Amino acid sequence: MISLLIFITSLVAAILIALKTRGNMYKVEADRWGDNRETFQTSWLIKPLGVFITGLILSMIQPFALEKVDSGYKGLKVSLVGSQRGVTNYQYKTGWVVYNTWTEQMLEFPTFQQHIEYDDQQVITKGGFPATIKPTFNYSLKEANIGDMFVNLRLDVKQVEQGWLKNAIIGAVNDVANTWEVDSIFGHRQAFEASIVAECNVRLSRWFNVSQLRTNITPPEALQESIIAKTKAIQQAEASEQQALTAIAEGKRKVAVARADSAELIINAYAAAQAIKIKQNQITPMYIEYLKAQAWDGKLPTTMAGSSGMFLNLNKK
After folding, report:
1. Mean pLDDT, rounded, for 169-192
2. 91 touches 77 (CB < 8 A)
3. Do β-strands 36-40 and 303-305 pair in parallel, antiparallel, or remain unpaired?
4. Sign of the CA dihedral 202, 203, 207, 213?
5. How many independent structural domains does the chain possess?
6. Which domain holds residue 6?
7. Residue 4, pLDDT score
């Protein structure tokens, strides 16, 4: 940026000088026949060309640079000279920063969340079983400790991510995996990864905050079948237990239905018996004679049996 400004300034200055001295571009002289002739003066170019070439050389060799530290980043201006050579001599910068590239270095470190994905790595679980992980996670730098991190590591943020930070994350995953059995890892993955995040934040708390870590762990092929078989056995046992509970509940339901049906029969039988008893108590000889009188149509029978057992016809002719 500064080199471009120097170049443009020298070009504009050379043009202004040329315009101001354009009267000296030609010299009028009489030839041998007495006629006036204009002769171009090459010396007129010396001053504007000198200014332009000087500016061009300065723009190419000048050591200063202008850089903008964007929002969300913290700039670190580090001295490259002296006995310490940047070990302790640094300054935090924001906005537009001018620095000497021969004696200073300008670095930018993000202060917002960064997402990292690493390639496949091998870890050893409890019992010596290997497993493959492909960790992904988010991290943020502790803004107040960025300078301290640079003093100790002497690396920019990308180099830290692929070097020191990667080794720390893989080491934490490996150490935690050594305390977990391989089948427990896959049965309690959330707790496993939460314990890794806790371990990472213990180890990296000086400069980093780690969150949302996923190991994407896969077991070795030799153990995959046994894990699948164990999972199926657990599922089958749970299904059998559920079926047993269902059968018990169905039995209780049937007993309740049977009790309800028998109670209904008893109630109905008792009601029928009570009805019969009530009817028997109501049927008296007088009531029977009353019913007969109610049913008689007022006519005497036409045939009656005599004392000798003979039937007499009482019809009148």
Report:
1. 88
2. yes
3. unpaired
4. negative
5. 3
6. 1-30+37-62
7. 81
